[in-house]
Amino acid sequence: MSAASVKGDIMKKNILISAILLATAAFCSCSDNAEKETKKVETTTEAVTTTEAMTTVEATTEQVTAPQQEVGYEGMKALTADDVKEGEYDITVDSSSSMFKITACKLTVKDGKMTAKMTMSGSGYEYLFMGTGEDADKSAESDRIPAEESGDVVEFTVPVEALDKEIDCAAFSKRKEQWYDRKLVFRADSLPLEALGDSAVTTLESLSLADGEYNVDVKLEGGSGKAGVQSPAKLTVKDGKATAEIIWSSNKYDYMIVDEEKILPTSTDEFSVFDIPVTVFDCKMAVKADTTAMSTPHEIEYTLFFDSESIKK
Q1: Residue 222 in contact with residue 229, Cβ under 8 Å?
Q2: Are residues 99 and 187 located together in one domain of the fold?
Q3: Cα R_g (the chain), whole angstroms
């Protein structure tokens, strides 16, 4: 074999080796890039997962520390123990937080004081303090109200300063080990009228209205919230009694019940119209109305609030 042939073979082998080395380097580079991309995706996924977890934690925290809901109702006036007759009554309590749900409450009025035994929806709270969370943090343990075990839930017996008044209440979470601010309103309108003393209600006698016709603002609550009544309503005073003309937003009511008396409409042409006795002012008056708008008639519970300050001739 000639020297030229040998030299040519060596060059071919060198070219082949170089090609193999280049291919290997390219493959390694691709593998490195792929590994880097994989790590990048894993890092991104981990970041997203962490963000989602943080968002979930924030959402949970937000549920606990969510903005306070409104409690009570417009025009409510605080009632003390002197305004309520002694006894025990079931009472409704408004809470400013959905995380602090009261399923039942028994109000006790005795010796010029009021207390309430509240049954909670769960057992997540260990103490209550009648005041703000800031004050609760500084309070002595003797000033805190401990939970009373009652099956799967807890109960708290608390002093009640007044009905129909926003009261500060701090609740200590077992799991979070911190105080949360709440506001409570013990609703006087959920008590039977006979539970309220003469000083707590406004009667026709206390208003000293002469016989005649007046207008009075009236507010309806209850049912699905779709029904309404016209306001102001005509108020007729005669022989020491007051009667209000209630005009409903539809003609689908065929009778009302007020103070256990069944009252039939005076008209159902365009609207259902009733003349009903007004037993109390400035306090929610419980009534029932039977609607025929459904497949079968239904009695629905409502309240009417007649504002004495709005009465005009």
Answers
A1: no
A2: yes
A3: 36
For tokens 């926003």, name the residue. 166
Cβ atoms of residues 212 and 312 within 8 Å: no
**CB-CB contact of 106 with 117 (8 Å):** yes
d(C-alpha 302, C-alpha 293), whole Å: 16
Residues 204, 285 contacting (CB under 8 angstroms): no
Mean pLDDT of 66-95: 90
Mean of the pLDDT values across residues 188-215? 90
The CB density around residue 166, as the number of other CB atoms within 10 Å, is: 17
Consecutive H or E run containing 276: strand 273-277
The residue segments making up the domain with residue 144 are 81-194
Same domain, 159 and 208: no
Region of 260 please: left (phi>0), alpha (psi -120 to 50) or beta.
left
Total domain count for the chain?
3
Domain shared by 139 and 211, yes or no: no
The pTM of this model reads 0.66
Neighbour tally for 77: CB within 10 Å: 14
Distance CA 63, CA 101 (A): 13
- Written as six digits, the tokens of 90 are 């079931």
> In the chain, what are the helix, strand and coil shares in percent, each to the nearest 5?
30, 40, 35
